[in-house]
């Protein structure tokens, strides 16, 4: 039997406690070999702290419980607690919110039709230094309010304004990411298939200045001009069959949309296709494959050529302000990729980039 003395220095010595201690000392002095009597056990147990009695909680889910206004008003809200609860530096946060909140949204098409697409929403606001946090569910509730409305930049701005006011913040941002399908014809066989374009629609409200942006990943084939020339040289000089190397390539085009006529998703896709026509194909028969080989031979490009061709096409459209083109040619010759970035205007120009930016440009089948 192990008996531990209490560490409580403020224990009041009572006659009963003294008797219990005397009994314990006597038992120990006898070598703790004899059996304790019931009276001695009862006296010694007086020295042992009593175990706490815990309340018995309900363990079944209360299906019939209803939250009253009074009950809701008394619930703790740590996220909106006082500044004294802030951990770390008392400093404002540029962006805090939600990412990849998904829901089906309706979008307008250039031909006047509509389509419903699964859309990933990123919504964020700025946070003052003396505020602990935000109620993130308000961002989602703002979108559900407009979920049955066909989305446009005006609707996105209305949703942004709603949660900006609800959260009492100075800056706000919304990004919608979606996969936009477009029926594309083959080069010669007149077959059609759906090409899917990764598109981002962004609205930023910073210092009470609102800006609109459109992002597009355009996937194309790039034939190396050097490899093409070397292949032709081998045929001409040595009658040696050789093939130039081509690879799947991706351009991530980000544009600032100016006030005025609408720049549709289809318009930005057409601008990219006019600049670099070797877009990857959907439906292909033999005549289409041959046509694609001929098109690649007619449009050999280095990655430097690609960004300059996109730049030239984008600068001709008055609906577009600043822009950025990030190109990645995912080499079939080398074990590394060839990359290039070109910016027009200060909006997208920056000193540093996400370390994984180029790895995100890989489009798997």
Features:
alpha+beta, 28% helix, 365 residues, 9 helices, 9-stranded mixed beta sheet, disordered N terminus, Urate Oxidase, 9 strands
Overview in brief:
The chain has 365 residues and is an alpha+beta fold.
3D structure, described in words:
The chain has 365 residues and is α+β, with helices and mostly antiparallel strands. Among the domains are: 15-45; 181-195 and 206-365, Roll (Urate Oxidase). Helix content is 28%, strand content 29%. The chain has helices spanning 15-29, 38-45, 69-73, 137-145, 153-166, 225-238, 265-275, 286-298, 303-315; strands spanning 93-108, 114-127, 150-151, 172-185, 192-206, 209-223, 246-257, 320-329, 338-344. Strands 3-1-2-4-5-6-7-8-9 form a 9-stranded mixed sheet. The longest helix is centred in the N-terminal third of the chain and has 15 residues, at 15-29. The termini are far apart.
Write the layout of secondary structure elements.
Layout: H1 15-29, H2 38-45, H3 69-73, E1 93-108, E2 114-127, H4 137-145, E3 150-151, H5 153-166, E4 172-185, E5 192-206, E6 209-223, H6 225-238, E7 246-257, H7 265-275, H8 286-298, H9 303-315, E8 320-329, E9 338-344
Parallel strand pairs: 1-3
Antiparallel strand pairs: 1-2, 2-4, 4-5, 5-6, 6-7, 7-8, 8-9
Helix pairs in contact: 1-2, 4-5, 7-9
Radius of gyration: 35 Å
> Low-confidence runs (pLDDT<50, min 5 residues)?
3-12
Q: Helical segment tally?
A: 9
The arrangement of helices and strands along the chain is: HHHEEHEHEEEHEHHHEE
Instruction: Please identify which CATH superfamily of the domain at 181-195 and 206-365 we are dealing with.
Output: Urate Oxidase
CATH architecture of the domain at 181-195 and 206-365: Roll
Arithmetic mean pLDDT: 87
- SSE-based structural type: alpha+beta
Q: What is the CATH C level class of the domain at 181-195 and 206-365, in words?
A: Alpha Beta
CATH topology title of the domain at 181-195 and 206-365? Urate Oxidase
Termini, distance in Å?
A: 71 Å
Net shape: elongated
